[in-house]
Amino acid sequence: MLDTGPLQDAYRALLDAAATVAGADGPIPAPPDGEWSADEILAHVSLVSAATVAAVADIAAGANTTYDNRAALDAWTIERTIAHAGGTAGLRDRISDQAAALCALAGGTALSEAELGTLVPARLLSKDTLLVDQPMPLRDIVTGLADAELPGHTKQLLALLPERATTGATR
After folding, report:
1. What is the mean pLDDT of residues 23-44?
2. Domain membership flag for residue 24
């Protein structure tokens, strides 16, 4: 069984940051060139979360799977996800439900230790940089969300806040 406490905490921090950005006084400045808006960040996280749930469910079902985050980087797919979710509130609800599903599947008895150790062909990019192009244990894919992916996007969300709101959000 996988300890999903850190994953739950990482999702909670991300959703808290998203709520802080959504509730900020005044307009949120446009992100710097080449960076995502809050909704684009949330859509990306939703797509990554869905891919992770799918990989975990596939292994639990005894199926072969792969893990590839390129769709979660595609601008058209991100915009479509924002529209389908209905914007910020829908994205936050979607991510919350995906987090609950992922934690239930990965942290419960749905997967054995052997299944968590299953090597999954993985391709992970960040912007245009290839980070991983090799099989990874399923466990590492899930814990990578808690260790790097979600905290990175939490910081990215908070960086969108006007200066005065950032000070209050980090106290």
Report:
1. 89
2. no
Query: With a threshold of 0.90, does the pTM exceed it?
Result: yes
Coil, helix or strand at residue 126: strand
**Structural domain range at position 54:** 5-17+37-165
Residue 93, amino acid = D
Alpha helices in the chain (DSSP H): 5-22, 38-60, 75-85, 88-107, 113-116, 138-144, 150-158, 163-169
**Total number of domains in the chain:** 1
136 exposed, middle or buried (CB, 10 Å; 0-12, 13-18, 19+)? middle
d(CA 164, CA 168): 7
Tell me how long the chain is. 171
Please state, in angstroms and as integers, the Cα–Cα distance from residue 2 to each residue in 74, 83, 106, 119, following that order.
30, 33, 6, 16
